[in-house]
Amino acid sequence: MKLLLFFAGVVFSFSFLNPIHFNPWPSFLSELICCISFLLLIIFIPIIKIPKNILIIFSFSLMPIAQFIFGQIYYFSISLISFLYIASFGLAVLLGYNLSIQKKGENAKVLMTFISYIYIFICFFSSVIAIIQWLNMPYNTEYISGMVGNRPFANLAQPNHLATLLSLEVIGCFYLYENEKLKKYFLALLILLFIFIIALTQSRTTWVFLLVFIIFLIYKGKVIRFKLTKRLLVIWSGIYISCIFTVPFFNEFLSSYFNVLQTTNVIERATTGYLRMEIWNQSLHAIKEKPLFGYGWNQTSVAQYAVIENYPGKEWFSSAHNIVLDIIIWNGLIVGGLITLYFLLIYLVCLIKNIKIETVFASLMILPVLVHSFLEYPFKYSYFLLPTGLFWGIIISEIELKPFSVRSIYFSLISIFGFLILGFIFKEFNESTDNNVAANTYEMNERVDHFELAYPVYILDEFKYRSQWFALNPCTRLNRNDLNKVGNMVSLHLTPYDLLKYAKILSYNGFQKEAFSQLKILEILYGGKYKYDDIICKNK
């Protein structure tokens, strides 16, 4: 088992260290690599015990399929990928559970130790990359993502993702300290490095996580005697806070030797950039508009489009930046509320009842992703979602669940089927980029004849319609049904390009009121002021 865990762990590490991110799905390769690593484990590690209450997760995975069948989700690819994400999370839970219950729970210790080692490897190299980005040292963009903005992000493309990853491994280091798996001084150096890089990312989600982490440890400290004492907890918290305030001084000192990124100070970070309030306000109003059935899985943007004229906000969002709001937006108050309640109750029960070091620290390793999910959307990325599922399986292994037995061959077959699906998705994703290039060329030449895709698309139909949308000349006669289909596409992509082009098409087809509506949304989101003359097809 250890050899298989090692191999899968090496594959998994590249989901964080992969530097390649490009549209139309920037995190695609990283998420694909993560899924491959988990499918490898499912093939070779027998899943023979299934707790009945975990089957509920798989019933949740059918929701996107049902929503597509009833026309609530616009594209098959959205429903399929949503289904795969939820089902994969359920499989990760079963994997973690079955690994943990073997050998009377001894395997849980092996698994947690191994996971902590893998994350040390990932976080160490991510920290080195972040330092290179921070100091603006020369580097090869084949191995390190090009720097954008003034906050280092290693190869994860988002500073908050790096902060969450490092926070997760700080807990992993504390777990190794509890079990005396590494020398104290070596662990202290690693934690110091990771904490400093977290401070460099200037992630405010980590501030919230630190508070929750302290409360959790103090609570569990009443029933478990941690080696991580309150004194050590205060010391490490103080070091982190000191790092936050001293980063500007490091910037100033090192600027004589390097072209250091001029990051903002802690006061600016604490007092600016609160667009989430507008996002949450719009989300709540969208829920109020459609409280029963919601807007469809992974269609938060559709909810914003429905209310933005009456409840303006200055940012287009594809997530409500809060996992509870997203789930309710997608499924409505009743179903969304039940899904939220299901996970909340299980997590709270485990927090209260678990007393083993492995299950308690697995609960802690979920916390960075969970706290982040209340402020952003890391759950939309498989390299955070699937490890969370694995930890979830570990934490429920201490509870009496009365599982039933199955033959492991079924899950091996599911894994093989998963590889086939990933292969098709990979093929169509690669071909979709070529389809987009062909569509953009077609558009630049202002052609009005029928556009043919360079490659046929069967699974990722949203990408197919996206390419056809790029190629569509705005001065084209469309019937009402086709205009509605275009409107569905635009509601998922509220970019200046989409809104302006849709306004032109509506105007050309005689729907002036709807055209003005798109211009109003353009002004709300991007400040762009257009006149009616700007959307008239003057050459027609």
From TrEMBL:
Residue span, O-antigen ligase-related domain: 190-336
Signal peptide: none
Domain Virulence factor membrane-bound polymerase C-terminal: 361-469
Alphabetized UniProt keyword annotations: Membrane, Transmembrane, Transmembrane helix
Membrane topology, as annotated: Multi-pass membrane protein
GO cellular component terms given for this protein: membrane
Listed Pfam families: PglL_A, Wzy_C, Wzy_C_2
Superkingdom field: Bacteria
UniProt-annotated location(s): Membrane
Transmembrane segments: 29-48, 55-74, 80-99, 111-136, 156-177, 184-201, 207-225, 232-250, 327-350, 357-375, 408-426
InterPro entries, per the entry: O-antigen_ligase-rel_domated, PglL_A, WaaL-like, Wzy_C_2
Domain Protein glycosylation ligase stretches: 152-168
Protein's name according to its UniProt entry: O-antigen ligase family protein
Species of provenance: Acinetobacter bereziniae (Acinetobacter genomosp. 10)
Origin organism lineage: Bacteria, Pseudomonadati, Pseudomonadota, Gammaproteobacteria, Moraxellales
